[in-house]
Write a structure and sequence with these properties.
The protein has a single domain, classed as Rossmann fold, CATH 3.40.50.720. The chain is about 50% helix and about 15% strand. The chain is built from eight helices and seven strands. It has helices spanning about 15-25, 35-50, 65-80, 100-130, 150-170, 185-200, 205-215, 225-235, and strands at about 5-10, 30-35, 55-60, 85, 130-135, 175-180, 245-250. Helix 5 links the parallel strand 5 (about 130-135) and strand 6. The termini are far apart. The mean pLDDT is about 95.
Amino acid sequence: MSSSVAIVTGASQGIGQATAIRLARDFSSLVLVARDRGNLERTAAAVRTSGAEALVIEADLAQPVAAQAVVGQALAAFERIDALLNIAGAVPQVDLFEMTDAQWENGFALKLHGARRLTIAAWSALNAAKGAVVFMSGNSAQFPKAPYAAVGTVNAAIVAMAKAFSDRGIADDVQVNSVLPGPVMTDRRRSYLLHWAPLHNMTIEQATANFPKEVGIARYGQPEEIAELLAFLVSPGARWMTGSALRMDGGEVKSI
């Protein structure tokens, strides 16, 4: 395996953790970023078992100073950045008429602005490596709903921002895409079902079983399935794909 470095944010759990472990097969070194050091260390152990080096960085990317610090540590350790996977970010699932200004601002702070700042901070290194960037959005970008208005709004903004970065990337030789997952079974999805169940007069067990039918899919997605898509997007085989928003949601979104 030639020297190659990927930064994965949100690597302490869920899709981010699965992606880091999957990329250990393709990259010689992984930079793992999240706020939960304990879980990051567990991800790092799995990455090393798969044969890649792992650098753990405990950071809150919602803080403006974090992006430069992460990029600085990555370059000090490995001297290059070949891929950046912006996966970190949870947006409050609160009704449009109940969300406070602070909740709106928190929704944008990490998933949108944290990813934006980190991508800008890493851009020169990505340009030098002819690298790739992926932004994590969600299929709610294509059908915003009042009960979780911020989720759809932030996800739509991420798709638009990824398009803008990809436009610059054509000139700078940096490939940029976004991914729009549907209902993937993670801890975040379990938390959502705890909220969703009483709204539909169900127990959590009933809600977990019935939700796929309610939204018109056969089953939940798994983090490892999204990780495979992300791994493809930062692989040589996907090099000509840029400016794309790829939805992987089991068919939940029925529109073309």
